[in-house]
Amino acid sequence: MRPRTTPEWNAxxxxxxxxxxxxxxxxxxxxxxxxxxxxxxDILRRLVRGVIRGDPTGLPSPELVPxxxxxxxxxxxxxxxxxxxxxxxxxMTYGSVAVLPLPPTNKTLLGPIKTTHxxxxxxxxxxxxxxxxxxxxxxxxxxxxxxxxxxxGAFVDDGQAARFRVEVAESVANLALxxxxxxxxxxxxxxxxxxxxxxxxxxAAADRPAALERIVTDGHPFHPAGKIRKGISAADGLAYAPExxxxxxxxxxxIDRSVARETRSRGRKRLTDRLFETFxxxxxxxxxxxxxDRPIDRFAVVPVHPWQFHxxxxxxxxxxxxxxxxxxxxYTHPATxxxxxxxxxxxxxxxxxxxxxxxxLAIDVQTTNVVRTLSPNAVTxxxxxxxxxxxxxxxxxxxxxxxxPETAATCYYQPGGPHTEGHHFDDAxxxxxxxxxxxxxxxxxxxxxxxxxxxSLIASVPGTDxxxxxxxxxxxxxxxGDGPDPRxxxxxxxxxxxxxxxxxxxxxxxxxxxxxxxxxxxxxEARPVAALIRDFGGVxxxxxxxxxxxxxxxxxxxxNSDIDADGEKDLxxxxxxxxxxxHLAELLATLAHECDMDEAAGWDAxxxxxxxxxxxxxxxxxxxxxxxxxxxxxxxxxxxxxxALTAMRLRGKRHEYVTSRVSNPLARxxx
Length: 671
What we know:
- There is one protein chain.
- By secondary structure, the chain is of the alpha+beta class.
- 41% of the residues lie in helices and 18% in strands.
- Strands 7, 8, 9, 10, 11, 12, 13, 17 and 18 form a nine-stranded antiparallel beta sheet that branches.
- The radius of gyration is 25 Å and the shape is globular.
């Protein structure tokens, strides 16, 4: 085993030094090379699953056949007598084999499928194969499959093929590095403690939710480039990624208010005032370093990621620095980075003001499909969506659904807007910041409760191969007293996360993007008691449903924003994909695969709760019955629209969705 791609070689030195520092192997590089082999397999599995599930343009549709040699051979076109490897036909292990001809290449992809979960979420076998006229070869690297897909015409153009090769290769290298961090994090945990306490207390972090978020090391569960961090080096990853460090130095930049856009939700302070209140000494440092002829109240202050500070701010805003309109400050404060790199949690909270916020930053780094800057759209829209959600929450008094409000934001902003593209738009999105509520301080999180990022539930407890949720199930006591029961646990979970989100959609026309990364679930011991939703950039609002409620709030989005829903289908595409296809489907697939849960029983529980919720909405007579019926029918359609992330990258799409249809596990006739 040796590195093959440029990203694998580029990470080699940083990985070796990290392994040497933490005494992971002898020789030091052995740990990285071992992790590299499994990372290649993992990313290949995601790629094969995405190609099979996403039905990309330019490729034939795959055929799923039983794992029988004769049936597989019959599905392969124009092939002589080729011996199908026994690994492909292990009927005791695999449920079926996906057969995908790649006609111009004279090759056929064989993707063994261990099992198929809800929404056609295939669990791909350890190895996939390419069948030619006279031989069968195991695919040993995901980039090798991309080369075949390119020859087969799957890419929109040569440039996108080259970009996606780099993205996938970088994901392999970054995933291998992350696996080294997993071993280090595991050394610090006390195995005798309950799992949430074990992880929260054993991982260094600014607070308990941040400690739990640090264990999510594998990236996006669907995306073959789910560990891409395009723009930063492997060494930068060691310095700034949450799996490797609990502390980065948060920086700050002052902006003359003549070139600043400041927003805030009702009754909240401006971002600058909130920062001065939170960080002792920041106001004094700002006053000392600003131009002496300009008072401090002429400036807004924006928090900045340290990587962005050194790699982008100093050069991009050089002209403004010369005129004193942009002033980088020397003040720093330690903060824990979260999963998306750009959100951080301040350390030393006992010395800060009450309820230190989460701070969302701009960073010119691509993860999955998007560069993680913070646009003027987000700066403008977030506080407005906050006002709408808080007005609804005040009226409804939700028992289990909470929001993490985006209370204030600021960005660099040249006069003469709105800026929707070009260099003025880019200037705005590269120097911007936002604060939102820290989940640890939400009223639903009592003294003994823990706010757990939902993505952490399917992540392995460091140092083990066991997902966090399985340990929670083991600690969960069923109401009948019979001990650990994954079905009872999942039913309690569904009762917390589903009903009030459906009410919000049906009654008020707001669809939350409550996928695993955006949801924080509150646990009292091992019992789920509430769900908190963060990050309002993906929310959809249908004004025809919201406006009649007379809430004295409105959402006037920044031009070219996606918040305004085009219709009911837009709402369904957002909530039903994020909550059911992503969040619940991935959690249930993990419970079924790792915790011996009957997956069909899990979908029965989801269907029962959803049906009961729609019945309750109808019975309240607050929502037209025909509307509720449409919302319910859409959730239980035989198939659902699926966001095909792999197909999006093959076609070069970032913000425009490429979709396919997948079977709906909620649509059983007996439900």
